[in-house]
Amino acid sequence: MGKTLAQSAGSGERRSRKDDAWHQGPVWALGTMSGTSLDGVDAAMVLTDGHEVLEFGPSAFRPYSAAERRVLQAALGRWPGEPGVTEAAEIVETAHAELMARFDGVQIAGFHGQTLAHDPDGRLQGARRTHQAGNGALLADTLGVPVVWDFRTADVALGGQGAPLAPFYHFALAKKIGAGQPLAFLNLGGVGNLTWIDPGLPQPESDGALLAFDTGPANAPLNDLMQARLGKTHDAGGEVAARGRVKKPLIQRFLRHPYFLRMPPKSLDRDAFDDLVQSVRRLDTPAAAATLTAAAVEAVVAGAAHFPRPVSRLLVTGGGRHNPVMMKGLAKWLGAPVEPVEAAGLDGDMLEAQAFAFLAVRVARGLATSGPSTTGVAAHVGGGTLSRPDTAADLTADPAAD
């Protein structure tokens, strides 16, 4: 796409918020998500004012090729300037531009980028940081629409985990489906995360409205196993895991990981549980798949113990909802109906892409996108960079939103 992340980031003049008066009322926003499973890019439109979801629009998916996945896989765990990062960013930018160009009527876009590394506690080198490859300013120039990106940095800089960011959208969805009792959304992507919601409260910033956190590994270790051993992107239908037996001693050891002793909010890097992956190396493939699937389930069960009150239902999004072994395991241990989000009339394949469309509008309008109960940040934060087309100028949103 011409420029690289390193060449484009931070280019252009800074403008004040007053110079970019964002009109009120609903707008059609396009959101994108390239998840830790590395399968490809999701894109979806929503009609929203940043408070309510009024209508769902079209959606599309652009898979990564095997060659692209290899480049992205090789860049995992790396930071800007390290080998392979520029190449990974170019793949991310090109894939997103190709997909986003298919949509008409976009008034603003949200670009998450590809998470390569995430260390919000500074455990690796003493510096709190997060790295999502890809330059939203370049996409704004290419597509000719304002693009909001770099959603996580402000939250991390102010002491938050920078993840998960979908909970404010989950709250809006709970309102849209007319939920009257506490419920939870579970995303089973590469990493699992839970959002507990009290829909009786007026807004996501209300005290007690939300609790959100990463549960532990979900599909990432299982997908990596499938790719390495069988040349497959995932365990379709849980078929491989269904033929294996869970190695319970490995699960017991997994649950002793220090992460499970931490109180939420909390978040994870994709490869934070590498010891789990190493523990199944000597198992045959069905047993390894069964054990990794069980680990994903047990992590969610452990996380549900933190819910402020029991939930009326657990709505599951992400690829894991297509894995019947995973879903049956959750239903066995959780004391509430476990259903794919489609049971509530939602699109589980596109929900995270929709979330970043919704968050883009909130950033543009100075609204919060995270808070103490979702990322552990000290105050409600509306962090992100709004880049305009053509001029390459960008607006860094005020990180402290009321």
Explain the overall architecture.
By secondary structure, the chain is of the alpha/beta class. The protein has two domains: 5-163 and 356-368 and 379-396, Nucleotidyltransferase, domain 5 (2-Layer Sandwich), CATH 3.30.420; 178-344, 2-Layer Sandwich (Nucleotidyltransferase, domain 5), CATH 3.30.420. The protein has 13 helices and 13 strands. The strands form two sheets. Strands 1, 2, 3, 4, 5, 6, 12 and 13 form an eight-stranded mixed beta sheet that branches. Strands 9-8-7-10-11 form a five-stranded mixed beta sheet, sandwiched between helices. Strand 10, helix 12 and strand 11 (338-340) form a beta-alpha-beta unit. The longest helix is centred in the last third of the chain and has 20 residues, at 285-304. It is globular and about 55 Å long. It starts with a helix and ends in a 6-residue tail after the last strand. The model is unreliable at 1-21 and 391-402 (pLDDT under 50).
* String of helices and strands: HEEEHHEEHEHHEEEHHHHHEHEHEE
Mean pLDDT: 90
Give the name of the CATH superfamily of the largest domain: ATPase, nucleotide binding domain
Distance between the termini: 37 Å
- The outline comes out as globular
The proportion of residues in beta strands is: 15-25%
